[in-house]
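Whiteboard transcription, Tuesday session. T.W. wrote the structure tokens on the left side:
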């Protein structure tokens, strides 16, 4: 598996056969922070749908109340300025 650049080391191109990268090469590329898409825009790395849904719910349960409180403070502030 090729590693990222460290102190001037050069990395090899992604190993592949007949133009198709191996699964290990795809995951190594994704771990380095590169986009893992094929030339048609399809994702090469997929995530578990149930875990993704749980994460989205967890983020929503944090963000929505926080934004709601901010909107409430803005409304109270504007009501005090107008009055």
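and on the right, the sequence the group agreed on:
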């Amino acid at each position: 598996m090729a590693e990222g650049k460290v102190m001037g080391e050069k990395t090899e191109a992604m190993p592949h056969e007949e133009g198709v990268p191996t699964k290990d090469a795809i995951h190594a590329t994704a771990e380095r922070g590169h986009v893992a898409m094929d030339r048609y825009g399809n994702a090469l790395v997929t995530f578990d749908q149930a875990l993704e849904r749980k994460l989205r719910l967890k983020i929503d349960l944090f963000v929505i109340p926080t934004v709601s409180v901010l909107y409430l403070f803005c409304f109270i502030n504007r009501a005090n300025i107008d009055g």
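Someone added at the bottom: The helical segments are 23-31, 49-82.
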